[in-house]
Amino acid sequence: MAKVMLDVKELTTKYITRFNEDVYAVDRVSFQVEEGKSLGIAGESGCGKSTLALSLMGYYFAPLRYMSGSIKIDGREITSMKPDDARRSVLGAEIAYIPQAAMNALNPTQKIIRFIEDVIQAHDTSKTRKDIRDMARQRFEALNLPADVLDKHAVELSGGMKQRTVIAISTILSPKVLIADEPSSALDVTSQKMVIKMIFDLMRDGFIRSMIFITHELPLLYNVTDDIAVMYAGQFVEVGPAEQTVFDPIHPYSRGLMRSIIVPEAGAREQKLEAIPGTPPNLKKPPAGCRFAQRCKFASPQCRATEAAFTTIGGGRGYRCVYPEERLREVYAHA
Amino acid sequence: MPDIMMNGAAGRDHVGELCLSGKGVTKVYGMGARRTVAVDHVDFEFRKGEVISIVGESGSGKTTLVKMLLALTSVTEGDIYFMGGKRDITTRQKKHDYWRGIQAIFQDPFSSYNIFHKIDAVLLDCINMRGGKGFSKEKKTEMMSEACKFVNLEFKELTNKYPFELSGGQMQRLMIARIFLLQPRILLADEPTSMIDACSRATILDMLLNLRAEIGMTIIFVTHDIGLAYYVSDTVYIMERGRFVEFGGADDVILRPSAEYTRRLIQDVPKIHEPWDFTKRSPRAVLT
Amino acid sequence: MRNTLRQVSRSANFMIGFVTVMLILLMVGIYPLFNPGSPLDMIGLGTFFKPGTYISMYDAVETATAYTLRIDDAAAKRVAAKLPMADRESMKRWLIAYGIAEDAIHTDDLNDLLNLWNNTYDESARPAGLTSAFRKSVARIDAALEGLLEPLDVRVYTTSPETGETRETARIKDNQFINVSEVVNTRRLWLGTDNFGRDAFKELLAATGVSLKIGLIAGVIATALGLMLGLLSGFVGGIVDDIIMFFANLFTVIPGFVLLILISYSIGQEQRGATVVAAVIGCTSWVWTTRSVRAQTLSLRNRDHVNLSRLSGHTLPRILVTDILPYIASYVVMALILQICSGILAEAQLSMLGLGPKTTETPTLGLMMFWGMTYAAHQNGAWWAYFPVILMIALVSFSMNLMNTGLDQVFNPQLRS
User: Which end of chain A has fewer CB atoms surrounding its CB within 10 Å, N or C?
Assistant: First the structure.
C-alpha cells in the first residue's frame, strides 16, 4: 500500500460569528490521501468546502477555531503544534494553499522573484539570492513558465499567467500536500486548462506529492482528481473514485449533483437536467437526523429522526445515508 | 431537449419571422489613445420564438451588446431593427414602448434589487408599466400572487419582505416573476444562472423555458458557459473580441464547429463522456 | 431604517460625540435665560478682568448685615496676603546681611519672623553688601507692616450733602463678616472679561452658537451643491460630467482657502454678516463632496437594479432619488458632518485674519481668537480670553469627528468586526 500523505480523522472546526454563535462548518470529517493521489471535494456553496481547506492548514485564526480531530501530514500531527510553529514549519513547506483569489494577492509593487525569495528565506536563511534565482528558474522551466516572468511585476501578467505564477511560487518548497480551492474558477476556460496542466506537471515531477482540489464544477473535478468526496452541510456524504462517484453515485445528494451537470457534448441536449429543491440547512442549527432529509426526495420520517452514519463499502467507497446501498439502488431504479 | 421547447412558439409570434436584428452594430468607448472598440460591426438576426445564445468569454463585448440591445447605452454605429422596423428610441415615450417589448434578467440577483424597496414594489412596478395603474388593490394582489405562484413562491410569505431576506435562488425566481408580469416579446437573460449553484440551475432554466411557452417570447441567453448554451438554445452565436466568429444551429456550432476559436473553446471545456485533452481518463461509454 | 438607527445608537463613538454636541447646544440655548442681556455689553471698565465672583464693595459696606465671627487664622491669612513671599525673602536677605544666622530666620512662620524683624530692624543701619535701592524697598515693607499684627478698625465716613459735615457712619472691625448671599449686587464672571470688558463666558457661548450656525449653513450649502453636482456628473456622464469635473478640478487646483480670502475681501467688511460668510464658505467647499458622490454614483450606475429601474421606464430624477440616493445617504450624512466641522474651522481661520463676519456686531469663535490675539491676551497672562475658545473649537470638531467615526463603523462593512 502506498504511503499516506494526508491523514485526517474526525476533524471538527467551527466559526464564531459576530453575534457569538457557533457555526460548525466542518463536522467530523475523515479521509486519507495517498502519495501521488488527489482528492476532489465537491458541493454547493455554503457546504463547508472552503472552510475545510482552511482547516487543513493547521493554522487557525479568528473567526475559525479548531475543535477536535487530528490532521497528520506524512505521519506528523499538526493540530497539536503552536500556531507560530505551524506557520513556520508546516505552511509552505509541508502544505501549500491556493485560494480562488490567489492571483490578486501579489503585491503589485514587487517583482515576482521577490516573493520567491521571501518564501524560501522564511524557511531557509542560508540560501543566497543567486541560489534562489537558479532554483526558481529551473522550477519555472520545468513547469513551462517563461523564466522572464521572474523579473516582471504582477500587473504585467494576464490573469491566467498570474494564477500559474502564484501556484509556482507557493509550491517552490515542494510541499507534501497542495490544497487548491477553486484555483481556476475566476479564469476563462483556456487559462483554466493551462492551470490544470501545470498542476498535473507539478504532480508528475513530484514537486507536490498529493493534492486536495476543491471546486463546484463537477466536470472539472472529474477530469482532475483520482477520488471525489461530496460534501454537504459540513460533512462528507460520499467518498469514492472519481469514475464511480460521477457515474454511479450512491448518496441521493451526489446523485442530484451529478444530474445537474451540463457539458457541450453530443447527447447533452437529450439529457434530463435535474434540480435539488430547497437550500442547504443553516449550520448554526443543523437539523436533527440526516442533514439532507429536508431536500431529499427519497426521505422517510426515519431519515429526519436518525442521524445517518458513514458506511464504508469496498473499492475505497463510502456514503452517509440512513438506507443501505441496495435499498438506495432499488429506489433509484424505480425513480 | 425539454418538450416545452417544441410548442414554445405557439404564442403571439409566428416562428421564423425576424424579431430583433442588427446590421453593422458597433460600440466604441473613449477616443484618441484610449479608444476601444467593444463591439465591432456585428450583424445578427434573431427569429421569433427561438432560444438564442450569445456565447463569449469575459471581455468579448457581450455585455456591451446586451446594453445596446436593451437601449441602456447608445449605439456608436449601425442599426438595430425591432419587430420588422428600425428601432426608434428617440423620445422617452418611444423608449418606454420599446422596453415593454424587450426586458432582461441579470447575472447577479443580489445586485438586481434596490435593497431599500420591499419586494411588492418590484412587482407593482411591472403592473404599472403594463398599464395596470388603475387596477383595484385586490386585482393587483391577485396578479402578483399568480406571478409568484408561477415561479413556485408564495406571495403571502414575500409581501412586506426586503430582498435580502431571500436566498439567491428565490431572488432570481422573483426576477422571472417580474418577466411573467411584464410579458415582453423578447427576454435577454444575461448569465441568469452563473451565480447560482449548479443543482438549482435546472429550476431557473425550467422556469424560463416554461414562461417562454406560456407567453410565447423569444429568449436570448448571454453566457460564457458553452455547455449551457448548447443545452438550452436553438441558435448559437459565438463572440470573440467584439465580433461574431460563428453562428448557426446549436448542433452545428457545438458538434461541428467551423471557426478556430469555437473549436478551441469547446476543446478547453472539461467534459465527462468525451476525453478532455491531456487528462489521464480514457473515453468511456455513456452511462445512463 | 429603524435598524440602522438602533445600530447607530449602539456605537459608543457616535453617542459620545452626539451627546457632547447636544450638551454644547443646550448650554448655548439655556445660559442666556439665566443671564439675559447682550453678550457684547462691555460691562467691565478695563481689559482682561480675572475669572471669579465680583461683589459690590459699596453694597457690602452699606447694606449687608455685619456678623462677628471668631476665626483663628483670619489674621494670619490677612497678614500673609499683605506680605507676599517676595517681601519675606527681601526681609530675610536684610536680616542675614545685618548678621542674623540664616537658620534663625523662618519665612514660613509669620509671627516669629515679624517678632524678629521688630526687634532687629533699624532703618538707619547700613548692612554691608546692600544697595541703597534695596534698603529703601525694605524700608517701604517695614512701613507697611505697621499695625499688621494688631489691626486698627476701618472707619467709614460720609459727608452730608446739606451741611457739608463729615461724620463716621460705620466702623469695621477685623472680625466682622458679611454673608455673600445678602449682598444685592454680585456678578459671577466664570471666565472674567475680554479686552473690551465683555463677559467672556457669555460671549463664548453666544459665539459657539453663531459658529455652529455658520458651520451648519456652510455645511448644508456645500453638501447640497456637492450632492447635486456629484449625482448629475456621475449618473448622466458625458458632456455634463466633463463640465462639472472641469470646475471641480479648477477648484481643487486653486487652494480653497486662498479663494475664500479673496471672496471675503472683495465682499467688504460692511456686507459680511455671519450668514454671508457661511454662504461663501459653503460655496467654496463643495468640491470634495462632489468628487466622492460622483465616484459612488459611478459605481452604482452600472448596478443591475439601476438598469432594471431604467428598463421599468422610471425617470432620471426618480432613479436618482430612489435607486442611488438611499445607497449613498449614509455617506452623505457623514460628509455633512465633516463639512459642518470644516465650516466652523474655516470661519475661525478667516476671522483670525480679520476677514470674518463684521467685527463688532456678532461674536464668533474666530473673532474671539482674533481679539485675543490683537490685544496680546497671551502675553498679558489672560488665558481666559483665548484658551476656552480654542478648547471649544477643539471640542466641537472632536465630537463631530467622533460622530463621523461612529457612523463609519456602522455603515462601512469593512470596519465591522
Answer: N
Using the Cβ of B194 and the Cβ atoms of chain C, whether some distance falls under 8 Å is answered with: no
Inspect the interface and report whether the beta carbons of B231 and A273 lie closer than 8 Å: yes
Task: List the domain range (segments joined by +) for residue B93.
Answer: 3-268
CB contact under 8 A, B264 and A190: yes
B-proximal residues of A, 43-82, CB under 8 Å: 44-45
Chain B interface, mutation test: which of A37, A38, A49, A189, most B Cβ atoms within 10 Å? A189
CATH number for the domain spanning C240: value is 1.10.3720.10
Tell me the nearest-neighbour CA distance from B93 into chain A, angstroms.
Answer: 41
Domain count, chain B: 1
C166 lies in some domain: yes
Whether residues A279 and B167 touch (CB distance < 8 A) is answered with yes
Q: Are residues C234 and C355 in the same domain?
A: yes
In a domain, B83, yes or no: yes
- Asked if residue C304 and residue C201 are part of one domain, the reply reads yes
Give the model confidence (pLDDT) of C315-365 as tens digits: 999 999 999 998 898 889 999 999 999 999 999 998 888 888 887 788 999
Q: Do C335 and C247 sit in the same domain of this protein? A: yes
Collect all residues with Cβ–Cβ distance below 8 Å to B169 and sequence separation of at least 6.
A279, B109, B196, B197, B200, B203, B204
Packing angle of the helix pair C200-236, C238-253 (nearest 10 deg): 140
Nearest-CA residue of chain A relative to B168? Answer: A279
Same domain as C203, residue C133: no
- Looking at the fold, whether C116 and C170 belong to one and the same domain comes out as no
Q: Is A219 on the interface with B (CB under 8 A)?
A: yes
Q: Which residues pair with B102 in a beta bridge?
A: B186
SS3 per residue for chain B? CCHHHCCHHHCCCCCCCEEEEEEEEEEEECCHHHCEEEEEEEEEEEECCCEEEEEECCCCCHHHHHHHHCCCCCCCEEEEEECCEECCCCCHHHHHHHHHHEEEECCCHHHCCCCCCCHHHHHHHHHHHCCCCCCCHHHHHHHHHHHHHHCCCCHHHHCCCCHHHCCHHHHHHHHHHHHHHHCCCEEEEECCCCCCCHHHHHHHHHHHHHHHHHHCCEEEEEECCHHHHHHHCCEEEEEECCEEEEEEEHHHHHHCCCCHHHHHHHHHCCCCCCCCCCCCCCCCCCCC
Note down the domain range covering C59.
53-70+150-188
- Tell me whether residue B275 is in a domain: no
Whether pTM > 0.95 for this model: the answer is: no
Separation CA C393–CA A188 (nearest Å): 57
* Chain C closest-CA separation from residue B199 CA (Å): 24
Sketch out chain A's domains with CATH numbers: 4-334 (3.40.50.300)
Q: CB–CB of B271 and A266 under 8 A?
A: no
pLDDT (tens, 9 = 90+) of chain B, 288 residues, equals 343 343 333 344 456 788 999 999 999 988 888 899 999 999 999 999 899 999 999 889 999 999 999 999 999 999 999 998 899 999 999 999 999 999 999 988 888 998 888 888 889 999 998 888 889 999 999 999 999 999 999 998 888 888 888 888 889 999 999 999 999 999 999 999 888 888 888 889 999 999 999 888 999 999 999 999 999 999 999 999 999 999 999 999 999 999 999 999 998 999 888 888 766 554 443 333
Looking at the structure of chain C, the number of domains it has is 3
Contact A219 B286 (CB under 8 A): no
Do both C100 and C66 map to the same domain? no
ipTM (interface pTM): 0.86
Contact B114 C323 (CB under 8 A): yes
Contacts of B67 in chain C (CB under 8 A): 307
The CATH number of residue B40's host domain is: 3.40.50.300
Same domain, C121 and C201: no
Give the count of Cβ contacts less than 8 A between chain A and B: 112
